[in-house]
């Protein structure tokens, strides 16, 4: 599995998943890669998706000091933040002796949209992937509702409330629209009647009820995105991380994506967006962090970001207008 199709110094190890249709980032997020036969059985739709597909467990990385890697433990309570808060403290990451993220700190509250912006190579992608769990942090703390989740794998973070929507298509290609959403509801909602009620509600809310029986591979870009977000909400996230949501879409679809993000914040979900489309992102978020040379250059509302002379000199340019 690739993440956003990017390689290079701003991207570290990405968990490997076979590119067989029906297995993608969303599958990985909701189900541990566990070959032991005594592991709990998969729900029916996820079992269908996994038939004939072998997934590989990511290799454990050694700690920065060379010691043996630690086992993934439970999220621990501590003084790392507050309820309703996703926070990062003192995050660091190096590649080949070059530090690409230096003491980064940021936070997102429930019900707000926050941008993570900066020039290419600034370190924003690495910060974003460390929060999702796709990249391991060398130092620092990532906390959710006051609990340290820094060492937890991606699927554990998903179960605790962190949703992730990658830039590339993450639809379950072997299922139709309603079964894409139902596959996750089978994990989160044990009661069948309630599961079907929630399914109908999500299909209606995201205006894809008429497509419920349509093959997912036949969807347009906007329809696919709506299905992916509806499916992500079936996992009951308290925070959503959106990777390049405006990439590769036509101008008409920009407003559609912005409306979807507003739907998330109206639900009380905190949204963190990283994107190269500065105008679209600043026009949507409540505030933004600007990353430069691996550090947070500034944080503030769109008008404060645009007015900052350092941001204009190093990132936006003197002629930038929102």
TrEMBL record:
The keyword Transport applies. The keyword Cell cycle does not apply. Residues 1-76 are annotated as: Disordered. SMART domains: AAA. Residues 86-318 form the ABC transporter domain. GO terms for molecular function: ATP binding; ATP hydrolysis activity. One of its GO terms (cellular component) is ATP-binding cassette (ABC) transporter complex. One of its GO terms (biological process) is transmembrane transport. Keywords: ATP-binding, Nucleotide-binding, Transport. Belongs to the ABC transporter superfamily. This is ABC transporter ATP-binding protein. It comes from Chelatococcus reniformis.
């Amino acid at each position: 599995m690739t993440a956003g199709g990017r390689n290079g110094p701003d991207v570290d190890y990405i968990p490997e998943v076979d590119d067989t249709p029906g297995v993608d980032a969303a599958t990985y997020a909701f189900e541990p890669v566990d070959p032991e036969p005594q592991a709990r059985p998969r729900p029916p739709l996820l079992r269908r998706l996994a038939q004939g597909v072998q997934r590989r467990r990511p290799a454990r990385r050694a700690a920065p000091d060379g010691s043996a890697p630690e086992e993934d433990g439970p999220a621990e309570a501590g003084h790392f933040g507050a309820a309703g808060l996703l926070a990062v403290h003192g995050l660091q990451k190096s590649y080949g002796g070059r530090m690409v993220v230096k003491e980064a700190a940021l936070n997102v509250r429930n019900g707000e949209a926050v941008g993570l912006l900066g020039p290419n190579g600034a370190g924003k992608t690495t910060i974003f992937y460390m929060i999702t769990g796709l990249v391991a942090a060398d130092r620092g703390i990532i906390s959710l509702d006051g609990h340290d989740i820094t060492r937890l794998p991606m699927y554990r973070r998903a179960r605790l409330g962190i949703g992730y929507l990658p830039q590339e298509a993450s639809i379950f290609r072997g299922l139709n629209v309603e079964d894409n959403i139902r596959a996750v509801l089978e994990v989160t909602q044990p009661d069948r009647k309630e599961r079907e009620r929630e399914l109908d509600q999500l299909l209606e809310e995201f205006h894809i009820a008429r497509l419920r029986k349509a093959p997912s591979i036949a969807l347009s870009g906007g329809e696919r995105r709506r299905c992916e977000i509806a499916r992500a909400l079936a996992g009951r996230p308290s925070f959503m991380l959106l990777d390049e949501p405006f990439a590769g879409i036509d101008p008409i679809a920009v407003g559609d994506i912005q409306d979807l993000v507003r739907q998330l914040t109206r639900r009380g979900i905190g949204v963190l967006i990283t994107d190269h489309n500065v105008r679209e992102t600043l026009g949507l978020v409540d505030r933004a962090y600007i990353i430069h040379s691996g550090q947070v250059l500034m944080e503030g509302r769109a008008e404060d970001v645009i007015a900052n002379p350092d941001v204009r000199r190093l990132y936006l340019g003197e002629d930038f207008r929102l």
